[in-house]
């Protein structure tokens, strides 16, 4: 009898009552049965716990220093053959996403990492644009860009964490990027799946956080470059690739322009 793959989905939370129920519904409605959902909560003070306990999941409360420490806790507690990481404001792309992922994993001899597209949505989950990762992924491509695959659209074999360690918790925003570089550098197998795997919600909270954290992002990219001894890459060159990749997506450019105009109008009031 063919082995039934178990997919573990890990969700870190802290005061996530605004969007967490959408996330929980997205995961609980999956057509594939062997899904394990682990929620790691940093002792929320709002209704997060009450909402989570309405759905089937393993709810863990543990004080942590940031998202990646929570994810590491989830990895250690999980039982899945493969792991996904869906944040408390994000969604799986469709109700049969995990079913499609499992079929693709089996079709491609269970690669180390399966990755796909990410649908960017607004506060009410309305489509904005689609993030398209590189179809051919290797270390030379990744080291020039650092951010190459949206975290929510990565499906990572448990063996990758067993062989290469967990997320580097000294990084607060880009530990998933460093981990992907670690895997590519080791020669792990990556397979592109030409479909959307998740929906990333762009809202006032994470957009403003991104602006505030631009300085930290620079520090973390510089740290990753140093950690991997990447001599021919600098923060400036990584930033140029980020801008170039974004400009190639017309819908992304329109989104950035409309957001800029809205912010200008708000500041003028």
State the main characteristics.
nine-stranded mixed β-sheet; alpha/beta; 269 residues; 11 helices; 20% strand
Provide a concise account of the structure shown:
This protein is an alpha/beta fold. The chain contains 11 helices and 9 strands.
Written overview of the protein:
The structure is a single chain. By secondary structure, this protein is of the alpha/beta class. The chain has one domain: Spore Coat Polysaccharide Biosynthesis Protein SpsA, Chain A. Helix content is 43%, strand content 20%. The chain contains eleven helices and nine strands. Strands 1, 2, 3, 4, 5, 6, 7, 8 and 9 form a nine-stranded mixed beta sheet that branches. The longest helix has 19 residues. The chain is globular. About 3% of the residues have low confidence.
Structural class: alpha/beta
Largest sheet, described in full?
Answer: 9 strands, mixed
CATH class: Alpha Beta
CATH architecture level-2 label: Alpha-Beta Complex
Taken as a percent bin, the fraction of beta residues is 15-25%
